C-alpha cells in the first residue's frame, strides 16, 4: 500500500524555460522509509515541496493518504506531513525551544491547555526535554534539528519528509538523528521520505528512488538499487562503503555475494571465508 | 509563486531587515571625533528596508527598530519618540522613493526629507524631555547619523535590488 | 628540510573577557606545523578549531602566548601592522565562502583581495585571472555576476579570491560541506594539487575519511586544548584515545578493527578502501597459499 | 555552549523587580517620567530620588551599571545645565557679565535640570537591566492589542518582532563572520574618516542582505509547512500572567504618586 502517490507530475518554475520535473510517477509505501537520491539540482527538493503543496502542482496528480494535494486541501496535507529542512538555523522560528515546538500547534489552533502536554511529549521523544527553556543561540546544529523534529512530531503527522536534514551536521550528530528516525519509524509507524545526495544515508531505509535531471531513473528496494553498481555510477552517486569494498575486491579477483551486505554482514562473510 | 506565499516572504524578509536594523544600531557605532557623541547605523537599515519593501514595511521596520533599540539599550525615555521619529522616516523614505521613480536626484531628495523629519522629531523629543538646549545639541549628531545611513543605503540598494527578486 | 611554517606557543584565547559572558575558547596551545604539508585540524563542534585558525590568520588578538608565521611573530601586545603581516602570509577560506561574495562580476570579486594589498589594477587583474585559471574556472564566466553561478562554481570563485592574494599558507574551513559526492571529490583533488604546488595546507574537517586520505599531520582539539598531535596512523590506531576525544575512526579503520576482532589478521591500518581491499587480499592469498 | 551573544544591557540577578510583569514595569517607567515633570520643589525632588534609589537597590544591579547610563550623556547634561545656569534670571544675582548671569534661581533650575536628566535616564536603565528582550517584546505585543480595533495588523507585527528577536544573534554572528572573511582578504575597517568607513561596509552589507533574503525564503517555506498563514487566527502558547505581587506593586506606585502630589500641594 502506498500512502503517497505521485502520478505524471511535471513542474516548471515561473520564469524558467526548462521543466525542473518531467512526468514523474512514483509511489511511497506506507510505514516504510524511502530515500530519494540525486546530484545537486536534480529536482529532489522540488518534488518534496510539491508533495506537501508548498508549491502548487501544475501538471499531474498527487494523492497523500487519500487526500488530493491541491489548494483546497492544503490544511489537511500540512496536517498529515511533517517537513524538516536542510538548514537547522532557518527553520527555528521560536525564541526558545518550547516556543518553537508551540509554533506549529498555535498555527493549528490547538488550545493552550493541550499544548503543554504535547510539547513535553514531543521534546521527550527527541531527548530534548531538558532544553525546553534554551534559546537557539545556545544549541548546536544537531540539537536544533532535533527541535525541528519535535516541532513536527507535536502535530502528529503520518508522514515525515526530511530534505537533507542532516547534511549540515557533523558526523556524530548526523548518526544520532538517523538513529532517532529509525526508532521513530519502528515505534510510531511513520512513513519516512528522506532526501540525500549521500548514498551512505540511503542504507538506513527500505527503498531508494534515483532522480536525475528531473526524471525518475530507478526505484526499488534499497538492497537492489545500491548493489547495482552500473546504475549508481551512471548517475555519479558514489557507492556506500561496503559496496565500494566489494567492487575493489571483485576487481582484484575476489568475488563477493551479489546481495547487499551491511557492515556487520560483510565482516561476518569475510571472517567466515 | 502564489500570492499568499509572496506575502509571507515579504513579511519574513521585513522581520530580518528589522533584526539587521537593530544589530546595526547596536554594533556599528562610530565615534565622532572632537565630541563625546557617536552615530550608529540603524538609519541605514531603515532606509534600505523602506527602499526595498515600500512605505508600509518601511514604517514597521523604522518604528519597531527605533523603539526596540531604545528599550534594549536603556533609553526607554526615548522609546515612544523613536517609534514616531523612525516610523515616519521609514514611511516617508518608502513612499517618496516610490514616487521618485528612476530619477536619481528625487531618490536622494526622498532620503533627505525622511532624515530631516527624523531629526525634527528628535529635536522635539529632547525639548519635551529636558529643554530646548538639549534639543539643539542633538541636531548635529542626528543629521550626521542620518546622512551616513543614507550614503550606505544609496551605495548598496541598487546592487541588492539586482540580486533579489521581490 | 622545510622550516616550520607555523609555531604556536602557550596560546590562549578568551571571548568577551571581563564580562559576565567571558568564555575561554582556547587554553595553552603549543603546536608546530611544518611547511609544505597538509595538516588536518579536527575536533567536536565548539572545540575551538575555527577560533585557533582565526588567531593564526591574525583576525583575533591572542589573550596569551604567541604565534609565529615565517618571520612574523605576534603576541597580545603586537601592533596592528604585525597582525596585518600575518594576514599577508596566510589565506583563509571560511566555511561556506560563497556567502561572502559581493562584487558585480566574478573577476571584480577575485580582485578585491589583491587590491586591498595595494596592488595596481592591472597586477590585481593578472593575479585574479591566474587564480581562476588554476581552479579551471570557465573563462567565459569571468564577467558574470557571482550570484548567477551554481553552488560549486560560487565556491571556486570564493577560493580563487583567497588564492589571488598568493598566500604561502592556506587554511580551509570545511571546504566540502554541502557538496554532492562528485563536487566533494573535485574539491579535494584541487586541495591536493595546491599542496603539490608547494602550499602549506591546513584543513579543518569533520570527515575522518579526508583526514586518513590526505593529511600528513593531524591536530585534534578537545574543549579548547590539544588532545592529539601526530600522524593519522597514530591517531586512528588508539581507539580508547579517539573515544576520549569524542571522535570516530574512518570507516575503513573501524572495519579493519572489527575484522581483527573476528580473528582476521590485518597487519597495517588501512587509510582508504584501496588499502583495505589490499589488506584483505593479502590475508586471503596468505590463507589460500597456506592451504596449498 | 559558550556562544551567548551580549546584546542588550539586561543583568540577570533575579530580583523582585526582575519578576514583576513587564507590562507593569513598562507603565511604571513611563508614569515615573511623567511624575518627574511635576517635581519642581526640593521635597518632591528628594522624594522621587528616594523612590528611585529604592528601585535601584531592589534590582540588585550594581550602581556602576546605572552610572554608565548617565555617563554616556554627560556632555549633553553639562552643556544644557550650563546654559540653564547662565541664562536664567530671578532671585539673588551673584555675578553678571553682559547678558550672562548667575542667579540663585538659575542655580536651582540647573540643579533640577540635572536631576531630571539623572532620574529619567536611571529609571529607563532600571527597566532595561531587569527585563529580558523577550519580556519586552511580549509586553509590547500586549500593549499593542487595542490597535486591532483601528485595523492595525497587530498579529503580523507581533510575528515580525518575534522573528526579528529570534534572528538577532544569528545575524550578529553572521556580520562578524562576513567582516572577518573580508578582513582575511586584506580589508581594514578601522581606517579612515566617518564616510570612508561607512563605504568600507559595502562588502559586508551586500552579502548580509542577499543572504537574509535567501534566509527569508527558506524560513517562509518552513513556516508554511508547519501551517502558518499570516491571515488566520492562531492560539497562543506564551502568555503573560498578572500575579498578586504585580497588584501590590501597582498599589505601591499609586501611593508613591499620592505622596508626591501631597508634597506638592501641602508645601
Ligand atoms: N525558486 C526557484 N526558482 C527557480 N528555479 C529554481 C527554484 N528552486 C530551484 N530551482 C531550480 O530547479 C532545479 C532543481 O532544484 P532542487 O532544489 O529541486 O534540486 P535538489 O535536487 O534539491 O538539489 P540539492 O541537492 O542542491 O538540494 C535547479 O536547477 C534549481 O536551480
Ligand atoms: N564570537 C564569539 N563569542 C563568544 N563565544 C564564541 C564566539 N565564537 C565562538 N565562540 C565559542 O567558542 C567555542 C569554540 O568555537 P569555534 O567556532 O572555534 O569551534 P569549532 O571547533 O570551530 O566548532 P565547529 O566544528 O562547530 O565549527 C564555542 O564554544 C563557541 O560557542
Ligand atoms: Mg534540495
Ligand atoms: Mg568552526
UniProtKB/TrEMBL annotation, chain A:
Belongs to the ABC transporter superfamily. The keyword Nucleotide-binding applies. Keywords: ATP-binding, Cell membrane, Membrane, Nucleotide-binding, Translocase, Transport. It comes from Limosilactobacillus coleohominis. It is found in: Cell membrane. SMART domains: AAA. Residues 4-238 form the ABC transporter domain. NCBIfam families: ECF_ATPase_1 (TIGR04520), PRK13648.1 (NF010167). It is a peripheral membrane protein. InterPro entries: AAA+_ATPase, ABC_transporter-like_ATP-bd, ABC_transporter-like_CS, ABC_transpr_CbiO/EcfA_su, ECF_ABC_transporter_ATP-bd, EcfA_1, P-loop_NTPase. The keyword DNA-binding does not apply. It comes from the Bacteria. This is Energy-coupling factor transporter ATPase. Its main location: membrane.
From TrEMBL, chain B:
Pfam families: ECF-ribofla_trS. InterPro entries: ECF_substrate-spec-like (IPR009825). The chain crosses the membrane at residues 12-34, 46-69, 108-125, 131-157. Keywords: Membrane, Transmembrane, Transmembrane helix. This is ECF transporter S component.
TrEMBL record, chain C:
InterPro entries: AAA+_ATPase, ABC_transporter-like_ATP-bd, ABC_transporter-like_CS, ABC_transpr_CbiO/EcfA_su, ECF_ABC_transporter_ATP-bd, EcfA2, P-loop_NTPase. Keywords: ATP-binding, Cell membrane, Membrane, Nucleotide-binding, Translocase, Transport. Its EC number is 7.-.-.-. Gene3D superfamilies: P-loop containing nucleotide triphosphate hydrolases. It is found in: Cell membrane. Belongs to the ABC transporter superfamily. Energy-coupling factor EcfA family. This is Energy-coupling factor transporter ATP-binding protein EcfA2. It comes from Limosilactobacillus coleohominis.
Automatic annotation (TrEMBL), chain D:
Keywords: Cell membrane, Membrane, Transmembrane, Transmembrane helix, Transport. It comes from the Bacteria. It is a multi-pass membrane protein. Transmembrane (T) component of an energy-coupling factor (ECF) ABC-transporter complex. Unlike classic ABC transporters this ECF transporter provides the energy necessary to transport a number of different substrates. Belongs to the energy-coupling factor EcfT family. PANTHER family: PROTEIN ABCI12, CHLOROPLASTIC (PTHR33514:SF13). This is Energy-coupling factor transporter transmembrane protein EcfT. It comes from Limosilactobacillus coleohominis.
Amino acid at each position: 500500500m502506498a500512502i503517497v502517490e505521485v502520478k505524471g507530475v511535471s513542474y516548471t518554475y515561473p520564469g524558467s524555460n526548462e521543466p525542473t520535473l518531467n512526468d514523474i510517477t512514483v509511489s511511497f509505501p506506507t510505514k516504510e522509509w524511502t530515500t530519494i537520491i540525486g546530484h545537486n539540482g536534480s529536482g529532489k527538493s522540488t518534488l518534496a515541496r510539491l508533495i506537501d503543496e508548498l508549491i502548487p502542482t501544475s501538471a499531474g496528480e498527487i494523492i497523500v493518504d487519500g487526500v488530493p494535494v491541491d489548494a483546497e486541501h492544503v490544511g489537511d496535507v500540512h496536517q498529515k506531513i511533517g517537513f524538516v529542512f536542510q538548514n537547522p538555523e532557518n527553520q527555528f522560528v521560536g525564541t526558545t525551544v518550547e516556543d518553537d515546538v508551540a509554533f506549529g500547534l498555535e498555527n493549528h489552533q490547538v488550545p493552550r491547555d493541550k499544548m503543554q502536554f504535547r510539547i513535553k511529549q514531543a521534546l521527550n521523544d527527541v531527548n530534548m526535554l531538558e532544553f525546553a527553556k534554551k534559546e537557539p543561540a545556545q544549541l548546536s546544529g544537531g540539537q536544533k534539528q532535533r527541535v525541528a523534529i519535535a516541532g513536527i512530531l507535536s502535530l502528529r503527522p503520518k508522514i515525515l519528509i526530511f530534505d537533507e536534514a542532516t547534511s549540515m551536521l557533523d558526523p556524530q550528530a548526523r548518526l544520532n538523528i538517523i538513529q532517532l528516525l529509525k526508532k521513530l519509524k519502528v515505534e510510531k509507524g511513520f512513513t519516512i521520505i528522506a532526501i540525500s545526495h549521500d548514498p551512505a544515508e540511503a542504507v538506513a531505509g527500505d527503498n531508494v528512488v534515483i532522480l536525475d535531471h528531473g526524471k525518475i531513473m530507478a526505484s526499488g528496494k534499497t538492497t537492489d538499487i545500491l548493489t547495482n553498481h552500473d546504475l549508481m555510477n551512471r548517475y555519479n552517486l558514489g557507492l556506500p562503503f561496503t559496496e565500494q569494498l566489494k567492487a575493489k575486491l571483485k576487481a582484484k579477483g575476489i568475488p563477493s555475494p551479489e546481495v547487499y551486505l551491511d557492515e556487520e554482514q560483510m565482516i561476518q562473510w569475510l571472517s567466515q571465508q | 509563486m502564489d500570492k499568499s506565499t509572496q506575502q509571507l516572504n515579504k513579511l519574513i524578509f521585513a522581520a530580518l531587515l528589522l533584526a539587521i536594523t537593530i544589530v546595526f544600531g547596536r554594533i556599528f557605532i562610530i565615534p565622532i571625533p572632537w565630541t563625546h557623541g557617536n552615530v550608529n547605523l540603524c538609519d541605514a537599515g531603515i532606509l534600505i528596508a523602506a527602499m526595498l519593501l515600500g512605505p508600509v514595511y518601511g514604517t514597521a521596520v523604522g518604528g519597531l527598530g527605533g523603539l526596540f533599540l531604545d528599550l534594549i539599550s536603556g533609553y526607554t525615555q526615548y522609546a515612544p519618540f523613536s517609534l514616531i521619529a523612525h516610523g515616519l522616516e521609514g514611511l516617508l523614505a518608502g513612499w517618496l522613493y516610490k514616487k521618485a521613480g528612476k530619477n536619481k536626484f528625487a531618490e536622494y531628495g526622498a532620503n533627505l526629507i525622511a532624515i530631516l523629519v527624523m531629526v525634527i522629531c528628535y529635536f522635539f523629543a529632547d525639548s519635551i524631555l529636558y529643554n530646548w538646549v538639549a534639543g539643539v545639541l542633538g541636531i548635529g549628531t542626528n543629521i550626521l547619523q542620518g546622512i551616513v545611513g543614507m550614503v550606505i543605503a544609496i551605495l548598496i540598494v541598487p546592487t541588492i535590488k539586482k540580486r533579489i527578486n521581490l | 628540510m622545510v622550516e616550520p611554517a607555523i609555531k604556536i606557543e602557550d596560546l590562549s584565547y578568551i571571548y568577551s573577557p571581563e564580562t559576565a559572558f567571558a568564555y575561554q575558547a582556547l587554553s595553552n596551545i603549543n603546536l608546530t606545523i611544518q611547511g609544505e604539508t597538509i595538516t588536518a585540524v579536527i575536533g567536536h563542534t565548539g572545540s575551538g578549531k575555527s577560533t585557533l585558525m582565526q588567531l593564526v590568520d591574525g583576525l583575533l588578538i591572542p589573550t596569551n602566548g604567541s604565534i609565529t608565521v615565517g618571520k612574523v611573530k605576534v603576541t597580545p601586545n603586537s601592533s596592528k601592522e604585525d597582525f596585518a603581516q600575518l594576514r599577508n602570509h596566510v589565506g583563509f577560506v571560511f566555511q561556506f565562502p560563497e556567502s561572502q561574495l559581493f562584487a558585480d562580476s566574478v573577476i571584480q570579486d577575485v580582485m578585491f583581495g589583491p587590491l586591498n594589498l595595494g596592488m595596481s589594477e592591472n597586477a590585481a587583474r593578472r593575479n585574479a585571472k591566474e587564480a581562476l585559471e588554476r581552479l579551471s574556472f570557465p573563462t567565459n564566466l569571468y564577467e558574470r555576476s557571482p550570484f548567477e553561478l551554481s553552488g560549486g562554481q560560487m565556491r571556486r570563485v570564493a577560493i580563487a579570491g583567497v588564492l589571488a592574494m598568493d598566500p604561502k599558507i592556506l587554511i580551509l574551513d570545511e571546504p566540502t560541506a554541502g557538496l554532492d559526492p562528485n563536487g566533494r571529490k573535485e574539491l579535494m583533488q584541487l586541495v591536493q594539487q595546491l599542496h603539490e604546488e608547494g602550499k602549506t595546507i591546513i584543513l579543518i574537517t569533520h570527515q575522518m575519511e579526508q583526514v586518513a586520505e590526505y593529511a600528513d599531520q593531524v591536530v585534534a582539539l578537545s574543549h579548547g586544548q590539544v588532545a592529539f598531535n601526530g600522524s593519522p596512523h597514530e591517531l586512528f590506531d588508539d581507539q580508547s584515545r579517539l573515544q576520549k576525544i569524542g571522535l570516530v575512526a574512518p570507516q575503513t579503520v573501524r572495519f579493519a578493527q572489527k575484522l581483527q576482532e573476528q580473528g582476521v589478521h590485518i597487519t597495517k591500518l588501512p587509510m582508504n578502501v584501496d588499502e583495505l581491499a589490499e589488506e584483505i587480499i593479502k590475508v586471503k592469498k596468505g590463507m589460500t597459499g597456506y592451504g596449498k | 555552549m559558550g556562544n551567548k551573544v551580549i546584546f542588550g544591557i539586561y543583568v540577570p540577578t533575579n530580583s523582585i523587580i526582575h519578576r514583576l510583569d513587564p507590562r507593569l514595569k513598562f507603565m511604571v517607567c513611563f508614569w515615573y517620567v511623567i511624575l518627574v515633570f511635576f517635581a519642581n520643589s526640593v521635597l518632591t525632588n528628594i522624594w522621587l530620588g528616594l523612590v528611585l534609589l529604592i528601585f535601584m537597590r531592589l534590582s540588585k544591579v550594581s550602581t556602576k551599571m546605572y552610572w554608565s547610563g548617565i555617563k554616556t550623556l554627560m556632555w549633553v547634561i553639562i552643556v544644557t545645565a550650563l546654559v540653564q545656569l547662565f541664562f536664567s534670571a530671578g532671585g539673588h544675582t551673584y555675578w553678571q557679565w553682559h547678558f550672562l548671569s548667575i542667579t540663585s534661581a538659575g542655580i536651582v533650575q540647573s540643579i533640577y535640570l540635572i536631576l531630571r536628566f539623572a532620574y529619567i535616564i536611571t529609571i529607563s536603565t532600571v527597566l532595561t537591566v531587569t527585563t529580558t528582550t523577550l519580556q519586552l517584546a511580549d509586553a509590547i505585543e500586549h500593549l499593542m492589542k487595542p490597535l486591532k480595533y483601528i485595523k492595525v495588523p497587530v498579529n503580523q507585527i507581533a510575528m515580525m518582532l518575534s522573528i526579528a528577536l529570534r534572528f538577532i544573534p544569528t545575524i550578529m554572528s553572521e556580520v562578524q563572520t562576513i567582516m572577518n572573511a573580508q578582513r582575511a582578504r586584506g580589508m581594514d575597517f578601522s581606517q579612515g574618516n566617518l564616510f570612508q568607513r561607512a563605504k568600507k561596509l559595502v562588502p559586508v552589507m551586500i552579502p548580509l542582505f542577499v543572504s537574509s533574503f535567501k534566509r527569508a525564503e527558506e524560513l517562509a517555506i518552513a513556516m508554511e509547512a508547519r501551517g502558518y498563514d499570516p491571515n488566520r487566527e492562531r492560539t497562543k502558547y506564551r502568555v503573560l500572567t498578572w500575579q498578586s505581587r504585580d497588584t501590590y506593586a501597582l498599589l505601591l506606585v499609586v501611593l508613591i504618586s499620592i505622596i508626591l502630589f501631597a508634597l506638592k500641594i501641602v508645601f
